[in-house]
Structures are given as C-alpha cells and as structure tokens.
Amino acid sequence: MRTLLSILIANALAMSGSVYAADSDAQKIAELKQQLADLTEEIDQINSRVDKNERHTALDRLEITGDFRTKAHSLHYQNVTWNPAIKVDFNDFGAKAMSGAFGMPNDPNSPLGQMMAANPELAAAFQSGMLQGVMPYVLAPKTTQDINNDIFYTTRLRLNLKAKVWDNVSFAGRLSMYKNWGDSTGVQVFDSWRSFTMDGTNSGNTSGDWLRVERAYFDWKNIGGSNTYLSIGRRPSTYGPPTQYRENEKRGGTPSGHLVNFNFDGLTLGYKLGELTGIEGQVVRFCYGQGFESQWGNGEMFGDIVTKDTHLGGFNIDAINDGNHFLQFTLFGAKDINDGFKGTMAFPTQLAGIFAPTMYQDMQKFSNFNFQTRVQPSGVIGDMYLGGIGYAYESDEDFKAFASFGWTRAEGNGNAGMFGGMLSDAVFEAQLNADGSEIIMMPSAADENDTKDGYGIYVGIQIPAPYGKFGLEYNYGSKYWTPFTQAQDDPIGSKLATRGHVAEAYYMFDINPRMFIKLAGLYYDYEYTGSGTPVGAPQKVDDVIAGSAFSMLPVVDTAYDINASLVVNF
C-alpha cells in the first residue's frame, strides 16, 4: 500500500512541476510540494495504523485475561478428635485361630503367638470370650485438642485463554496456580480427604507454584445452521451458580455449584430451546465425562487391575435465564465409583505406627520425614446419583438472592477398601501376609450396602452497601449428603460438602471496577464425619468425641475461618 501511494504522489508532483514550470511560477510549485509532503506524512501515519491492525488480526488471535487473588486466613478448629478403630470379624478370627491357621498361641515364634504377645489386652479379652461377632478393634488412644493456624496466606493466579477459530467455532481455556505462601511441594500429609491431591481437585487445592490446565475446550455453535452446539475438552465445571456471588464474578461454570465443583474431562451437547419456546436463555444440555481411568498407568501389564472406569452422565437445564431470573435443574449419575482416585500424598507417621510397624521403626530415626506416595483405589464400591433445583434473582438495583436444594443417592455394592465402602464401614478379617510370618487385617466387605439418600440446602442474599456490597450465606448438609464440590478452595474444606451447618458473612469493597477487597468469615458446625467423601460410614461427631464412635482420620467438631482478600482482574 505504501509503494502504491508513493508512486501516485511522485507522478502528481512531476505533472504539477511541469505545468507550473511552463508558467514560470516557482512559488506555487513550492506550495504544492509542501502540500504533497503533508499528505505523505498523513498517509504514512494511516499506513502504520493499518499495518498494526493487520498484524493484530494475523498474529494476535489469542486473547488473554485473568485475575490475581492474595488472601490471608485465620483458621481455628475446635475439639479435633482422633479415635481410630476398625471393625473386625472376631468370629472369623476365632475359627481360623482354633484351626491352627495362625500357629499355636503358646508358640512365641508363631504369627498368633507374636500377636498375642504384642497385644496382651486383646489376648485377654479374646480368651475370656469378650470378643465375638463384628466389633471395633481400637488402634490408638483417643486424643482431642483445639488447633489454631493464626495466619495462613494463599495466592491464586488464573489466566483465561480465548480464541475465535471460525465464525461458529471458538476455543477457551484457563490456567491456574494456587499455592500457600512458603510451600510449593504440591503434596500434603494425609490428615483429611481435603489434603488428598488429585485430578478433580487440583484447581482448588494448594498445589504449588506451577500453572495447571483447569479448563481447555472448544465450542462448536449453530451446527448445520441449527440451535445445537457441541463442546469437548476439560470442562468448565467449577464455580457454577449460585457460587459466583461470593466470588464477585460472573457465572463461572455450567452445572450447579451446589452439586458440582470438580474438574473433569468430557463433552456437552446442548440445544438452545429458547429459540423455539421464546423463553430467554432456555438451554438443555446433555453432559458426559470420565472421572477416573482405571487401567492406563495403574500397572495394568501385571494383570491385577480390580477397579473400573468411572463415567458421568446427565442433564443440566437452564429453564429461565433472562438477566433477572435464573432457574436451573440438574440431574446426573456417576457409575462405578471407586474407593478413591489416583493421587499423591505424604503418608502420615500416625498411620504408619498402626499399619506399618517395621517402616514406623525406621521413620522414628527421621522424625521429620514423610514419604510421598502415589495412591490409587482398591475397588469399585457402587454408583451415585445427584439432582437439584436452583433459583436466583438479580434486581436492576444489584440486589441478589438465591436458594438451592440438592439431593444425592449412594447405591453401594457391598465392596470396601481400607477406609470403607459406599457410605459404609469396612469389615476386616485376619489373614497371614505373603510369607506367612505375620497376621494382618484386611478389608473383606462393607458392613452394609443399602441405598442412602442425602440432601442439602443453600441460600443467600447480596445487597448493595456503602463502597461495595454485603452478603450472607447459609448451607446445611444431612448425614449422607455427598456432592462433588471438593475443588472448592475453602482451606477448611468445601463448605457446600459439609455434613452439618455453615454460615458465611462477607463485605466487598470496590476499589475500582477491576479491583476489590473482600472481608469474610465462615463458621462450620459439623454434625457427621466424612464431609466431601463417599467412602466410609458417617458417624456423629459428638459420639466420636465421647469415644463411642470411631474414625480413621481426625474429626473436627466446629471451625471458623476469618479471612481478607485482595482481587485484581486484568
């Protein structure tokens, strides 16, 4: 373009020069040259802007935005009780002992003799006939304490990626870093299910100073000129409605945040039903995903894989979404739930003392060492179904209110691993180890496999206030309430997975349209153990504290989190 304009200007100057030379008017020639010089400068400026736009169109096809959050918490836990025990079938143990399967009890070198010598109280109780049927076998003395972490800092960075591929095809992704200050190991000591780092919870668990791919998917809209669309990839399945209000952002995920805040890979096939019904924002979606891959990477070449792939499927329907009213229905199922996920953790010394005495002796020489291990589930424990209805109202004056009801159903199959079966405890049976030198307790089955229904409610309001907005939220989960919200980044644990009560209050101060400060407080009152996991039978927290019920992991009675955060959007 610049070459063409230069040729035109040169020709115009030559022609004008010849005409004015004939008239012998040098002054007019000079004026014309100045006008042409000014025109050339203006054309160069225009050309520079055109080149810049062309480069942007050709090269800058990826749009990058993001947000940065730094947060300070004060975390406090009351009546943290550890009272570990397993349920043992002592009838089975007695039959095997009487048959001589474990050796003679008066032989100090036999497995049975060694066990009796190491556990004299157990031996006395067994010989007196006090241990019959399925009974708890206490593994360690009960301890209860309050725990305070007065200051706990975290940093979260999220980078949003967008690209227009074609008129009706686009790509979206999000890279996230979430870490606590002073730690980038990415592995925590396994003291609760929250501390277990796995694929579905990486974005909500402090896992180090590296970026993870939280989302990566494409959208293919208006397929064949219809109202149908298809999306495949790592799904936008976190921060769904109505959880976006406490985050002070727009709707972040497709499914109900009351039921699902969990990363998974899959696809969505949707239809914009509102184009037919005339109801604004009405969309029907069928969603499918895979939550666990059982074979690849699990030593499948040894041929001893006992788990199965976990597949998810269901419907998510936005019945109304007109800017003021939002009504959503969710129903889906998860088939072949295993007793855990692939993940990493640091093995706790306390459990080593119970289950690995030889290793425990070595660990005492390095008391500040915990070995990191990759874990995987031991078997399939059943299926799960989740459903819910949520409604939110937003006024034109920025008042917001919402209510959500959720339902979960667990259908166990009677199998159990070390920590239990589907919302049930494991029954352990005694057997000899591989070389026949030691009696070990191994889970044989779940203590029950009946269907268990749970429910949860979640309500809240957000109102305009001086310099920002003020919000109140409350949620409750019943004994068997088991949503998939483990990726929620509350340090104490996903508040929406709580089996009990949680109250939250917050105030957001708007510094500018892209920056705000949030002051918040959360109070947890747990009624039952095992919040956030389908593995193991929920026990009343009061019974664990009293010593009449047991838990393999520490149990929290009440807790509160006072926090302040600064968020910048860019």
Please tell me about this protein's structure.
The chain is of the alpha+beta class. The model is unreliable at 16-22 (pLDDT under 50). Helices cover 19% and strands 44% of the residues. α1 packs antiparallel against α2 and α8 (349-355) packs antiparallel against α9. The chain has a domain at 146-342 and 377-413 and 449-569: Porin (Beta Barrel). The chain has a 16-stranded antiparallel beta barrel with strand order 1-4-5-7-8-9-10-11-12-15-16-19-20-21-22-24. It has a four-stranded mixed β-sheet with strand order 3-2-17-18. The longest helix is centred in the first third of the chain and has 34 residues, at 26-59. The chain is elongated and about 130 Å long.
CATH class of one domain: Mainly Beta
Number of strands: 24
Low-confidence stretches: 16-22
Structural class: alpha+beta
CATH architecture of one domain: Beta Barrel
- Count of DSSP H/I helices: 10
Principal-axes geometry comes out as elongated
> Which range does the strand content fall in?
35-45%
